[in-house]
From TrEMBL:
This is Threonine transporter RhtB. It is a multi-pass membrane protein. The keyword Membrane applies. The chain crosses the membrane at residues 12-33, 45-69, 75-95, 116-138, 158-179, 191-209. It comes from Bradyrhizobium jicamae. GO terms for cellular component: plasma membrane. Its main location: membrane. GO terms for molecular function: amino acid transmembrane transporter activity.
Length: 213
């Protein structure tokens, strides 16, 4: 199947997705906060809404990058190199500031599930950092010379969502234990931050060396 990346590329992308899913951010804060204050149903609604926002971004990025590749392989290469430096920046930020999970206490009121879902969509759909991430991260796993790069970009975008949903669902089902473990283990979180930074740096270096050759 022409849309499937090589096994080693998919394996590397899977490892990256795992670290990214486990990195606390606004979406994780929202769906875990909803779970702890309003129940698992609203936590699931928040998580699915956040995933829908990511689906939109990944598809827009895949179509846009595919069109850019068709129009100019050079421009696509520039995007990839810029993405390498962005990945290095992400790694530096992880080391400097670390991961954070800040959950706000609820006021006792439960918003309708539909409203929670839409709020989840907005968390990622209106986040410019998500746009930047998909524009610079996805291209790291395709070759400029690959005639099927467009279909592979779309596959990777959808794969990242499908991969993250069961993990996030497990977090919701074990929200109490998961959040307590994160709060009690600052050393483990620092190890995770360095692993994340190392992985981002490895992808960036691999790309820059490939371009240099």
């Amino acid at each position: 199947m022409t849309f499937l990346p090589a096994p080693e590329i998919l394996a590397a992308f899977t490892v990256a997705c795992l670290l990214l899913v486990l990195t606390p951010g606004p979406d994780m804060t929202f769906f875990l906060g909803q779970t702890l204050t309003a129940g698992r149903a609203r936590g699931m609604a928040a998580m699915l809404g956040a995933c829908l926002g990511v689906v939109v971004h990944s598809m827009l990025a895949a179509f846009g990058l595919s069109a850019l590749l068709v129009a100019s392989a050079t421009a696509f290469t520039v995007i990839k190199i810029a993405g390498a430096f962005y990945l290095v920046w992400l790694g530096i930020q992880a080391i400097r500031h670390g991961s954070a999970l800040t959950l706000k206490k609820g006021d006792g009121r439960k918003a309708p599930i539909s409203q929670v879902f839409l709020m989840g969509v907005g968390i990622n759909l209106l986040n410019p950092k998500v746009v930047m991430f998909f524009l610079t991260f996805l291209p790291q796993f395709v070759s400029v010379s690959d005639p099927h790069a467009g279909s592979k970009l779309m596959f990777l975008g959808l794969y990242s969502i499908a991969f993250s949903i069961p993990i996030c669902a497990a977090m919701i089902m074990m929200a109490d234990r998961f959040t307590d473990a994160m709060r009690r283990s600052p050393r483990a979180m620092r190890i995770f931050d360095w692993l994340f930074a190392g992985l981002m740096g490895t992808f960036a270096l691999r790309l820059l060396l490939a371009r240099g050759n």
